[in-house]
Amino acid sequence: QRAAMSVIIKTADEIEKMRIACRLAAEVLDHVTPYVMPGVTTGELDRICHDYMVNVQGCIPAPLNYAPPGYTPYPKSICTSVNHQVCHGVPNEKVILKKGDIVNLDITVIKDGYHGDTSRMFLVGECTPQARRLVRVTYECMWKGIDVVRPGAHLGDIGHVIQQYAENAGYSVVQEFCGHGIGLKFHEEPQVLHYGRAGTGPELKEGMIFTIEPMINAGKRFIKMKPDGWTVETKDRSLSAQWEHTILVTADGYEILTLSEGTPARP
Ligand code: MF3
Ligand code: CO
Ligand code: CO
After folding, report:
1. Cα–Cα distance for residue pair 233/223, rounded to 1 Å
2. How many angstroms separate the alpha carbon of residue 243 from the centre of ligand 2?
3. In angstroms, what is the span from residue 65 Cα to ligand 3's centroid?
4. What is the rounded CA–CA span in Å between residue 59 and residue 220?
């Protein structure tokens, strides 16, 4: 089960630890929600989340100093991706949120060695109908993907329904970043693409845990990296949105592990 290049099937004991880590990650989002207002900086949001994870929850913020091959260590504790930023936006004291912005806050905690990973979109004050539609459709995309999860389904089924729904709405799917297995490691196999063809890819099995986290652009799918080596933006500077849950494959479907009181209702 644990050989390289295969998807880990979690034991009952590991699943229980994942439930705890994942709920804690969602609760960080609940905690920070009232602070996401015009005038706050993304640096302040990072500090609020960092202090809560470390001092209240007794968790390690997984992003801090995270350094996958080819990357410099990530300098902050959460990701804050504003407007045309796709993912991995680095919090900054100089980035002040203003009315009409949309922002993704992506939280990953480590508790008892296990990772919980979830993100939500926030509307800063009143937003345009176009921004609200992108945020809503992206949420629906994530849910389309979640709803096909069950033993015997294929990984490609998830990407297929997400891509269909996003493109029917006139949007595009980012291809360079994907969902991922998660557990003792932040990013494990499998890669969960948010595009693709039904019936392709490995079969889902009970006990797998992975994220579904579609990044959907209002314009074209192409991206570029900022000079900081982390922040990813749309090449055409169109708006981008993302939502993320960590999901367990159960005997007859799925269990969403990253739930909390503040989790928005399903569409
Ligand atoms: N939380 C992101 C994900 O969903 C990964 C962030 S890596 C970081 O996979 F280093 F930028 F934090
Ligand atoms: Co993730
Ligand atoms: Co994440």
Report:
1. 6
2. 10
3. 15
4. 37
Find out whether 192 and 202 touch, Cβ atoms under 8 Å: no
Q: Which pair of structure tokens corresponds to residue 118?
A: 């979830």
Nearest alpha carbon, ligand 1 atom 10: 63
Alpha-carbon distance of 17 to 233, in angstroms, equals 34
Q: Which atom of ligand 1 is nearest to the CA of 71?
A: 10
pTM of structure:
0.98
Distance 105 CA to ligand 1 centre (A): 10
pLDDT 10s digits, 207-237? 999 999 999 999 999 999 999 999 999 999 9
What is the per-residue burial (b if ≥16 Cβ within 10 Å, else e) of 250-259? Answer: eeebbbbbbb
Q: What is the DSSP pairing of strand 215-217 with strand 60-61? A: unpaired
- Ligand 1: which of 42, 78, 88 to mutate, most ligand atoms within 8 Å of CB? 88
Q: Residue whose CA is closest, atom 4 of ligand 1? A: 117
7-23 pLDDT tens trace = 999 999 999 999 999 99
- What whole-number distance in Å separates Cα of residue 147 and Cα of residue 233? 28
